[in-house]
Each structure stands twice: as C-alpha cells, then as structure tokens.
TrEMBL record:
This is Amidase. Belongs to the amidase family. Residues 17-359 form the Amidase domain. InterPro entries: Amidase (IPR000120), Amidase_CS (IPR020556), Amidase_dom (IPR023631), AS_sf (IPR036928).
C-alpha cells in the first residue's frame, strides 16, 4: 500500500501511532519524501511530540510517506511513492500528510501525526475519510519538525475516531484538558463559501440533521485570506527548500512550484500581513456570535489519480482550509461523503485556544450524525489486508 517509509518498533504497549516523515525520530533520517534528502544524517534526538508519545507508553510503528517536501495537496510522490487511498483507491489520498491519513484509513494504526501548513492534515483526512485536527497555531510543539521555521505550520493528529484523536492531543499537547460540557443547544455559523452543489448538499443535510441552530455567516475576505496564505507559504517554503531545489534532485513538479514560489515579493507579503490581520478579526467576530463555524473541507471530491498528474493545478483542493492556517484558529475535518459516496469532509472551526471545545462539538456532531472513519473494512473496494 506504499504508506510507510520507515517501519519502526519503539515505545511501550500503549496505542500504536505513526508519524509523518517531516517529524524527527532519533536515529532515523528525516527525508520529507524527497530524493534530495535521501542521504540526510539521522536525527540526533526525537521531536518533542515523538518524545511525549514514547514517554506516555505509545508504540511508534513507523514514519509515513508524504507529498514531497510537504509542498503539495494530492499526495502524489514519484520518488517515494504515492500512498493508496484505502477507501477510494482510484482517488488521490490528499497531501501533504497522505501517508498518515492512509495509515489510519488502512487500519495500520488508530492515530498518525501529520502537519498542516495550508490544509495538509484536513485535506488528506477528508480524502481518506478519517478525522483530522489542525490545532491552534503554537498549541503543539514543532521542535524537531520540518520546516524548522514557519508562521503557519501545526502538528496534529489524524485518527480513526474522536476518542483516539482526543487521546493523542492529551499526550502531544500537555495543556490539553478534558473536553468541556456543552450547552443543550449550539449556534453553528455556516460559512458562505464556493463548493460543488453535491458537496454543499451533503454538508447542509448533515448540519440540519445535527439539531443545532444554524446561522448563515458571510466572511468577506475569505478568498483574500486564501491567496494571502498562499503568499506566506510560498515565501516560507522557498526559504526552507531553495538549497534542495538547487541540487536538481527535487521532482520536477515540486521544483517548478517552488521556483514559482521564489517570486513572492515583499509587496505580496505586506499585503498578506494586512489580510491576516483583518481576516483574523473577521473570524473572531463571527465566533463571538457562534460556538463554531462550519463549511466543507473540500470544495469537491478528490481528483482521480489519472487526472491529478498536474499537482500545481490541484492546489485548489486547499481553497476552504488554507485561510485558517493564516489566522491560526483550530480546525477539524470530520469524515463526510456526498450522495455519490465520494469524500468531501465536514470542517469545523473554533476560537483560538478553544481546541478542547472544538473537539467536544465535533464529538457531539459525530455521535448525532453517526459519522465513522474509513478503516480496514471499507465498503468502497475489495482491498487486500493492510500491509506496510
């Protein structure tokens, strides 16, 4: 299934977990899915999140494949290999945390860690039909994670269930407490964002079935926030990866996108900073009147593998997730399919720092809507037993 880049056996007898290969494991090279890092030196120590998992007795089973250098939304990787999407084998697994999502969907582990700079946990979670949380920016340590410096990137869990996801957060974020009690009725702000009609039908039907109060919420700067987030990730990714591109060992599609990213100038970054300020205020204002914001995770189902060779053209997969990297708000994707049985995901967004409340609301909606992750007994295809 081409999911695991480095099988491992570390830790105790607790829950099994895998981590994306941008997260350091002592004694293992962190290759980020790139031939340019094939000969990277082994990490001298564990990333903080790995150390916390091991200290809590979890079993580290391996490092997972990803979109090269975590710079892509499809998960397609010509050098390291593209993980199979267990529920929809003809569709992309999503990126960049493709292997982490696929590992959970294949039933290899109940939890896998990914990273999310522009949707890279939530997009593959939606594509593979599992739960995925981008925590509040800074809530989970990035010590020992590539890229070393980012104003957008977050480490977070992909999981087979909400209890699994919460258990992981309680380990990797030491201040993550018990889920709070919720009022009998919630106000859910439904964001007006562009998505395929079948996607919106699935999301609207789910929200109406939740029994909560639904409030339409327009966010005027949503598209601007998407483009501002793209400017920031482009500038920061080029700064982190320029030397690797110059080796000539980065795959042509990723190298071309990074070279394009290098043209992001100070004017674009200043404009992005202004949008970040105003859009963050817009989201905070919307959340002052609502318990959570809701929207699709994906604008439309993930593309077929045979239609996704141009990974640059698939950047629109992040259209509905990237704005919340810019603002730093916590956001979660719950498994949801459209009427044709294709994955689109339901995304919920909460106030910064309110990760526990977000998870409590996600748990309520999961229970009321009977949402379940794709795991090793998927009905969408006859799969071989899960293997590394």
């Amino acid at each position: 299934m081409n999911i695991v880049s480095q099988p491992l056996s570390l830790g105790g007898t607790g829950p099994a977990v895998m981590v994306k290969d941008t997260i350091d494991v002592a004694g293992q090279a962190t290759r980020a899915g790139s031939r340019a890092l094939a000969d990277a030196a082994p990490a001298a120590r564990h990333a903080e999140v790995v150390q916390r998992l091991l200290d809590a007795g979890w079993q580290l089973r391996g490092k997972t494949h990803l979109h090269e250098l975590a710079f892509g939304s499809t998960g397609i990787n010509p050098w390291a290999g593209t993980p199979l999407n267990p529920g929809w084998p003809d569709r992309v697994p999503g990126g960049s945390s493709s292997g982490s999502a696929a590992a959970v969907a294949a039933g290899l582990v109940g939890v896998a860690l990914g990273t999310d700079t522009g949707g890279s946990i939530r997009v593959p979670a939606a594509c593979c039909g599992v739960f995925g949380l981008k925590p509040t920016f800074g809530r989970v340590s990035r010590d020992g994670v590539l890229p070393r410096h980012s104003s957008l990137d977050c480490v977070g869990p992909l999981a087979a269930s909400m209890p699994d996801l919460v258990a992981a957060m309680q380990v990797i974020a030491p201040d993550f407490g018990a889920l709070p009690a919720l009022p009998p009725s919630l106000r859910i702000g439904v964001l007006a964002v562009p998505a395929q009609d079948s996607t919106w039908r699935a999301v609207n039907e789910a929200l109406q079935a939740s029994g909560e109060t639904l409030v339409p919420v327009p966010l005027r700067r949503f598209a601007e926030a998407y483009h501002a987030g793209l400017s920031v990730i482009n500038a920061e990714s080029w700064a982190a990866c320029a030397a690797l591109v110059e080796t000539g060992l980065v795959a042509p599609d990723v190298a071309a996108r990074l070279r394009h990213a290098s043209r992001t100038d100070e004017i674009a970054l200043k404009a992005a900073a202004a949008v970040r300020h105003w859009f963050t205020a817009d989201v905070d204002q919307a959340l002052a009147d609502c318990d959570v914001l809701a929207l699709p995770t994906l604008p439309e189902p993930p593309p077929r593998l045979d239609q996704a060779a141009d990974t640059g053209a698939s950047v629109g997969m992040t259209a509905l997730v990237r704005p919340f990297n810019l603002t730093g708000h916590p956001a979660i994707s719950l498994p949801l399919t459209n009427a044709q049985g294709l994955p689109v995901g339901l995304q919920l967004v909460a106030l910064r720092g309110a990760d526990e409340r977000l998870c409590a609301i996600a748990q309520r909606l999961t229970d009321r809507l009977h949402l379940t992750a794709i795991t090793n007994g998927v009905p969408h295809a006859d799969l071989e037993p899960a293997t590394l």
